[in-house]
Amino acid sequence: MSDLFSSVNDGDDDTDDAGSLTFGGGTSTQAARPRSPLAVRMRPRSLAEVVGQQHLLGPGSPLHMLAAGGSAGGPAGPASVMLWGPPGTGKTTLAHVIARGPGRKFVELSAITAGVKDVRRVMDQALTDRDLHGRTTVLFLDEIHRFNKAQQDALLPGVENRWVVLIAATTENPSFSVVAPLLSRSILLTLQPLTNADIAGLLERAIVDPRGLDGLVSVTDEAMDHLVRLASGDARRALTTLEAAAGVALNELDPEATTADGPVVVDLDIAERAIDAAAVRYDRAGDQHYDIISAFIKSVRGSDVDAALHYLARMLEAGEDPRFISRRIMISAAEDVGMADPTALQTAVAAAQAVALIGMPEARIILAEAVVHVATAPKSNAAYLGINAAIADVRAGKGTMVPLPLRDAHYSGSAGLGHGKGYLYAHDAPHSIATQQYPPDDLVGRNYYVPTQNGHERDLDTRVARLRELIRGTEPGAKR
Q1: pLDDT at residue 336 in the model
Q2: Which helix (H) or strand (E) holds 224?
Q3: I want to staple 32 with a disulfide (CB 3.0 to 4.6 A). Which of 17, 119, 243, 471 is the partner?
């Protein structure tokens, strides 16, 4: 068979021992170094070992049925599955677990290197294996979105007639990257990014599992947090970075030491050097969370766009919820920019909606755009101070009865109480501005909103002053 294919039997051959484990310039025969990467050795052998994706792994789910040797859709239903999700969320793992079902033969193709001839060869062999040997072929096709229409069409006969159980994986939306006939014959399952708790549990298992590091190392809490954060929900990346950190720790060990002296400690310094990425000192529930968001808001208010982008980057790199950041930008747009640039709040609200729809990592671009707009906009807290002053008066008991002309007059008997009497309909007055008392008697002449001379408010200052003259009848010759 071509090198494009890999066939897996029912045995457990995820690891192979070769040679000794070397560190610190010496050699220890206490443990053997497996040639396979840690991510391969720790690949789950059953659905029970799969981390995350619990929404797809319930009893009676298509994946459970396939893993048990049945059909994903029952006797008459579709038997093939389309797995759509970000890298490192378990697409290849699920395919390998399904392939371990009884009477299964596993064949793996990559859409990057395989062609139509390779697909047809697999289909012909699968038909032979089914009819002559009663064996089902599980065809795992990675990166199916890279197949063109003709290549995807070549899969249809095998899927339609169940010569193979197709497990296709893609990181792109299958609705746009997979032909409709193939999509309609498959069950589409969407995988979610792994949570930090999922990643941490995976790493802890790999540290102690005999297939993994077998207790050779221990990882400090700070180092573990760093590894989890760098993984960004990608299990493969998490295991790869753990293996790199363990390698640095073991190779720095004293040549005279042995594993009998206890596990080698992987601390934050080793983790940073192994991965060449500095840990972001940021506690989402502690002082760093509050200090950095405070510095971020004050930088935006102070119009230092560069500092604001720096603190934005620190929060994003530390895994802060982008929705939290977008809410703070909206508040700043209203509190610090206000009417000096009314479009700043529009940008902030649009950014918050876009972030909720798109998510990371693209959300960083949207947040940056909103930060640049709000930070560079002219500033005014006049509206913020105005509402605070109004609230202070209300809490102080100011504001007597609503003037009779402004009271509700729609119900029977209201006219007898004088409600609405003398009300001047603004649209009947010149410029739609009537001279009329709107506030309660004890607040007549009280100004809450005081426009600044910044940005749009420079024009508002003149307009608001003129409106007050007309409404209050304070201009010379005004009708009171």
Answers
A1: 94
A2: helix 221-231
A3: 17
